[in-house]
Amino acid sequence: MPEPLKLQDIKQRMASFGLRPHKKFGQNFLADFNLLHAIVADAEVDAGDCVLEVGTGAGSLTGLLCDAAGLVITVEVDRGMFEFSREVLEGCQNLVQVRCDALAKSGLNPALHDLLRGYLEAGEIGGVEGGAPTRVSVPPQDFEVSSNLPGKAPRCGRLKMVANLPYSVATAILFALLEARLPFERMVVMLQHEVGEKLSARPGDTEWGLPGLLLSRLAKARMIRKVPAKVFWPKPRVDSALVEIVPHGSQAGVPVPPDMIAFARLRALAHLLFQHRRKSVSNAMAMSLGVSNAQAATWLIACGARPADRTEDLQPDTMQALADLPEIQPLVRLAHNKGADQILAKAEKKARRAAWKKRVYGEEE
Question: Do 276 and 159 share a domain, yes or no?
């Protein structure tokens, strides 16, 4: 693969395709050659790696990953950029390109999950000639696989993720991949600097909050480098950060599947309590679960917490112990159901008001 396209070449080629960066897809293309090479080096990519990239973009990072990895599977949601990058990357013979939205309503796109699982378990890429078809049926307009492989996919011993993620969905993509229990050895991703600080925070840090708490149950994150906005086109309003995320157990070479049922309990409770992160945790529990402060204090003391502490001061293990209490679990489900009902009621009220205004005044809301 030749060196990545210069920014002027990217602009000219995109213009010839009738393309321009779309804000809704978070398209900010990395245009610094040194940084592109540094990302591949930071991820320690070699021929034994299968690398997943979410957000092919102009293919600049993708091509360098193909130079270093045994196999690269790259995902792009924008049909125009998918076709653009296919032309740019046509010489990469260890590349599989997938056009789809990496996210679904409940996490990772099931068709993408199926494709990755099929490769990891059988060494076959679903949708590619000779490969096993995906078990999940999706409309062809929503999922397309394009392969440059001359034959069967090479078998790689490690799975990594290396990507310049769109700001708006970066956190959602990371958690979707971690919760899918795919055996990632590590993830090295570019995302908004503020998000990187929150994900890599530890209890007691100023940035510690819900993202750091949830990630700490699945993986360990650290900031590798801060990246200025000027190296992107279009230039974003904020700086970025390169963050390494290592799932628990992967450093020892023995994947440790997380207890996702326990994690779901923790996540449900934490979402409620962190709505009142500055209040004492006993007050936050009383308000969220509809119980007395005395009852909340009893539960907290039983789990080794101090009722007067703030929600943000609770240790992850303490939060998990609270979420695991049998008395609390039905109250958490009830609170979430009530919240969903309130959101639905507000949406219905807004729709009725819009219909009334259109009927009375002949105009849209």
Answer: no
* Cα gap 92→7, rounded to integer Å: 20
- Judgement on whether residues 235 and 316 belong to the same structural domain of the protein: no
Task: List beta partners, residue 220.
Answer: 246
Q: What span, in angstroms and rounded, lies between the C-alpha atoms of 38 and 42?
A: 6
**Which pTM was predicted?**
0.88
pLDDT in tens, 77-114: 999 999 999 999 998 999 999 999 999 988 999 999 99
266 and 320 in contact (C-beta within 8 Å)? yes
What confidence tens digit (pLDDT) does each residue in 244-256 have?
999 997 655 555 5
Instruction: Flag whether 181 is in a domain.
Output: yes
Specify the higher pLDDT residue, 310 or 340. 310
Return d(Cα 323, Cα 104) in angstroms, integer: 26
User: Do residues 45 and 190 share a domain?
Assistant: yes
CATH number, domain with residue 209: 3.40.50.150
Helix (H, G, I), strand (E, B) or coil at 178: helix
